[in-house]
């Protein structure tokens, strides 16, 4: 158990890793500014120097849905570097700023990179009947099955962000041993989904909540989605994320309600089963994701897990001193290289 949330690492396993401390860069002080910088600055590398190949990866569940992604090759692929799969968060897509920035840095480090859209996200919104959720790990299975074996001959590494990080952790516990996964990293994962839902609905998060709720409603619709006029009217009238999960996300994925959906898919319960070297990066001042679940978990019991839990950094922020590259991108690349 961690008594204090500071930069930390699990040093009990064969892949011990110590992260450098995070020091926020002016003027991005505090969790909110660290979080908002991704939206305020909109630094989006174009990646034009790296050859891009659009991928269409069918989901073999009878829905006819496909996952879309973009595969980039580095200018010069470093020897034996694994393919890195980037998994976006709630209401994100392969074009989210944090995905593009991570891809840019990892490509410069010699990795091939796949920017994956989860089911119904980004350009796939009009191609899918169903939608991703916090625990739909079978979609990651489908995506990997659709890849050319040559792409993963040096192994795989995964980086997940926010809701995508929760999904990734669950996937690693369920399926990680079936794939040549060398390393993984989860950034700002809501490992207790119910607690995260309650946190985002707090009065201090009113603006965040309204923004996310609007985008979630947009994500749930699409030309192929089976939704009646009554469903659409009810969706428009939903006022909280908990209610949206309770009335739409849960029942459309065979859960009786939000509580059951959260309980079944929260990554916290899957952490003991992960056997892949995995970074868990989370900031104490994250305004969206509470830290109690991170504090209460016994990280030392699983040597595959490496918690890196600084006091500052916000939600998928970590804009630090001395480098324009986000702190989490730098330590993730170092972690992958060390495994």
Question: Could you describe the 3D structure shown?
Answer:
The chain contains 11 helices and 8 strands. The protein has 339 residues and is an alpha/beta fold. It has an 8-stranded mixed beta sheet with strand order 1-2-4-3-5-6-7-8, sandwiched between helices. β7, α10 (292-296) and β8 (305-308) form a beta-alpha-beta unit. It is globular, with a radius of gyration of 19 Å.
Which radius of gyration do the C-alpha atoms yield? 19 Å
What is the chain-wise order of helices and strands?
Answer: HEEEHEHEHEHHHHHEHEH
Category from helices, strands and their pairing: alpha/beta
Largest sheet: 8 strands, mixed
Percent helix? 25-40%
Per the CATH scheme, the topology name of the largest domain is Rossmann fold
The tally of strands reads 8
Q: Low-confidence stretches at least 5 residues in length (pLDDT < 50)?
A: 1-15
Topology:
Layout lengths: L30 H10 L11 E7 L7 E7 L10 E5 L9 H12 L4 E4 L21 H8 L10 E6 L1 H13 L5 E7 L5 H8 L5 H15 L8 H9 L3 H9 L8 H8 L12 E4 L10 H5 L8 E4 L18 H12 L1
Parallel strand pairs: 3-4, 3-5, 5-6, 6-7, 7-8
Antiparallel strand pairs: 1-2, 2-4
Helix pairs in contact: 6-8
